[in-house]
Design goal:
403 residues, mainly alpha, 4-stranded mixed sheet, 4% strand, elongated
Length: 403
């Protein structure tokens, strides 16, 4: 066992140094940071421009007193619509020829008027390029009805109801829904990092098989040690990348703070961050060992490219299966997602966000570690029998054996 670990360490150190101390690895680290940074900056800029460009604007031809009633109703209703604001109202002083004024407003390219409201509250008429049953017409009608009702109530001496409000820190229903959001964000983080980084293991052995370097390695170290060393070396490489990207994200948040923070998970933020690292490592090792075993059967880069599509689809299916376990984590589906080894890290990180029990995480990590070892052994056995032509014969995964 000690010789196996020593051999795995030598192989892993060789791969780690060869990967990290290269110019392409620097591009690998800086590429996502530049892409994400530019996406955030351009996204914020285009969002503001799009919001201004797409904002609905309705001209109201009315005197000041009549427009004040409509504008007051607009201000009362607008907060209830949140980000989907009511159309902007612009007052226009009445002219002598009303029809010509309406046509002029609708034809003015600099004002961007979608519709023109005339007639006030007594005989309102909306003219414009809007749908008869669309949102703009319904919202304008809602504003006019609110203004008319408030005017009638004010004349009758009615006073609006004053709603009292008592804020509490949390409730059971809100806490459960908020922690479910944290659970889904944790799952998404693990899934995105694994999709981005674990796929490299599919082609890890292709070059060495082509250059006959694998024969030298297999003669000096057990195949199990080769697989284990390469797997843990690529995990270390991915953790270097994750550390750099996390530092870049923290630095970016200091200059561009987020509007709202995620709710605190049930186990607390320090332990949750630790579990994210542990479950990411377990998820990477599980899928990486599977990918390394599958990729070791490929004879060329073309076969690896052919395998990349079903591998990605498989990862998406596993992610969907684990996402069903968010919320009902103690149901049959939630327990099945936690037991199935390839969805277990995703299901357990969601569980950590929603419940504070810790013994399940110890059992899950031990279970995942056992499956990592079994997957490595299976991949090494297939590699020895199908590629190295030694050991017990078995059926090839990619092509039939020749007699």
């Amino acid at each position: 066992m000690n010789s196996l670990l020593r051999s795995a360490f030598v192989i892993g150190r060789r791969d780690f140094i060869a990967t990290v101390y290269s110019k392409t690895f620097l591009l690998f680290l800086l590429g996502p940071l530049l892409i994400i940074g530019l996406s955030i900056v351009l996204g914020n800029a285009t969002e503001r421009m799009a919001r201004d460009d797409l904002k609905a604007r309705v001209a109201v031809i009315a005197n000041e007193a009549e427009f004040a009633q409509i504008a007051a109703a607009h201000e009362r209703l607008n907060p209830s619509f949140g980000q989907r604001e009511l159309p902007e109202l612009v007052r226009v002083e009445p002219d002598y020829v009303l029809d010509a004024q309406v046509r002029e407003l609708l034809a003015a390219k600099d004002k961007r008027i979608l519709g023109v409201l005339t007639g006030g509250l007594a005989r309102p008429m909306l003219t414009g390029a809007v749908s008869e049953t669309g949102a703009i017409r319904n919202q304008v009608a809602l504003i006019l009805n609110e203004a008319a009702q408030q005017g009638a109530l004010a004349r009758a001496g009615y006073r609006p109801v004053s709603l009292g409000f008592v804020k509490v820190d949390e409730s059971a229903g809100s806490l459960a829904s908020l922690r479910a959001l944290t659970a889904r964000m944790g799952q998404l983080l693990l899934f995105m990092l694994t999709v981005l980084l674990a796929g490299m293991l599919l082609s890890n052995l292709v070059e060495e098989k082509t250059n006959k370097v694998i024969e030298v390695l297999a003669a000096s170290a057990p195949v199990d040690a080769i697989f284990m060393g390469k797997l843990f070396a690529m995990l270390a490489v991915s953790l270097v990348g994750v550390t750099v990207w996390a530092a870049g994200a923290i630095l970016g948040l200091t200059f561009f703070p987020a509007g709202e923070s995620l709710p605190e998970p049930a186990v607390g933020w320090p332990l949750f961050v630790l579990l994210v690292i542990l479950y990411y490592s377990a998820n990477y090792l599980l899928l990486g060992a599977l990918f390394l075993g599958i990729g070791s059967q490929a004879a060329s880069v073309r076969e690896v490219q052919t395998l990349s599509m079903p591998v990605t689809v498989g990862q998406i299916l596993v992610f969907m299966f684990a996402s069903f376990a968010v919320g009902p984590f103690n149901s049959f589906l939630g327990i099945a997602a936690a037991v199935f080894p390839f969805s277990s890290p995703l299901a357990m990180i969601a569980r950590a966000a929603q419940t504070s029990e810790l013994w399940t995480h110890l059992a899950a990590l031990a279970w995942q570690a056992a499956w990592v070892w079994l997957t490595i052994k299976l991949g090494a056995s297939l590699f020895k029998s199908n590629v190295m032509k030694s050991g017990t014969p078995s059926i090839s995964l990619l092509r039939p054996r020749r007699s």
